[in-house]
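can u do me a favor
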C-alpha cells in the first residue's frame, strides 16, 4: 500500500515537472517551434529575442517541437 502511494506520488511529480519544463522560443510571429536549448540550430537564425517559457505556454502559442531536437 505504501509502495502504491509512493509510486503515484512520484508520477504526480514527474508529470508536473514535464508540464513546467522550460523551453526556448523565438519571439517572432513567424516562429513555429520551441526548443530545448537556446543553442539549437533551429533557433540560431532567430533575429528576435529568445524567450524562456514553459512547454505548456509554447504549445498554447501553437508551437511544436523543433525538428532538430531528438
Ligand atoms: Zn530546436
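np, heres the sequence
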Amino acid at each position: 500500500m505504501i509502495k502504491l502511494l509512493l509510486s503515484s506520488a512520484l508520477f504526480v511529480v514527474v508529470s508536473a515537472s514535464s508540464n513546467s519544463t522550460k523551453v526556448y522560443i523565438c519571439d517572432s510571429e513567424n516562429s513555429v517551434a520551441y526548443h530545448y536549448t537556446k543553442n539549437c540550430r533551429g533557433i540560431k537564425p532567430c533575429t528576435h529575442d529568445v524567450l524562456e517559457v514553459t512547454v505548456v505556454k509554447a504549445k498554447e502559442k501553437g508551437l511544436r517541437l523543433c525538428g532538430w531536437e531528438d
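The chain has one domain: 21-70. hope that helps!!
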